[in-house]
Design a protein that fits this description.
The protein is α+β, with helices and mostly antiparallel strands. Helix 5 links the parallel strand 4 and strand 5.
Amino acid sequence: MSSSHENISQWLVDSALFIDEKQINKLHEAIVKPEFELVSISSTESDSSSTTKESKWKFGASIGASYLDVAKAKLGIDYWKTKREQNSNSNSSVENQIVINSAERKLEELSALYQFGEDSGYQLLTNKFDIENGQAPEWYSEFSKKVPTPKPLCFFELSPKTCLIPTAAEFEDGTVATLFNDLRDALTTDNGRPNDRYPEPKSGQSDEELLQSRKEYWESYTKYYSATKAMLCIEAAAKEHGKIKWIDFRLPIASTGETLHLHIVPNEEYYTGTFAYNFVKRFYKHGGKIVGMLKAEPDLNVLAIYEN
């Protein structure tokens, strides 16, 4: 199911749960190709004013403005004296403004380029995935082995009951943990368990047969899925091995078994709960939105995650 391009700008008017600053900076440099970087803006404001004050006294009378004027009056001097005072004030201020050059602003620029540059080869994919009723989008099979250059920029909306299956992650201590094995054990009950082995290519097996066996493999996880147990698997691994360098998920996107591989690189800069509770658990309850660059299989390098 597709959603309108007109709505994607509203997605970015939000605080991202996760945003990959390094990857966005590299994409911005490669795709937008700015010729220079604006560091700061200076503005000068000046204000000058001049006032003239004029006073008159008639000496020889009883009116005076100072002790000296009174003394002259007593001497019988009879003339007009005019005193002019001119004050000139000049104020100037210089205002330096630092340019906001954040990952959020650069993602807005990238999305605008893709949104209005489709005639120049930029592909913007917007879809809403529903694993209970939805079908895989047309581009799913088209981009299974190769994607165009530049790679498509994707805005995907995930419905409630989204099953985010953690598959693997690398942690602070260098350990690469196969989370899908831990999750399979956690999902095992008296009623059954997910399939044991991920299907690898076999001699004489067609591409269609391999694809179907892999659909069935991930469907077995969806069948027994528990967002709470998936959350606990991530938390347990992080407690043992430290902060997350990168983490991958399998995302079922249609009722017919198709999945999307998600690659997320927090680079040890986000709390475990960002992906364990807020991403896995809350997205199952409420759904959410992800932005990323599509690559072959198809896979998605996730640039940003937004909660509903």
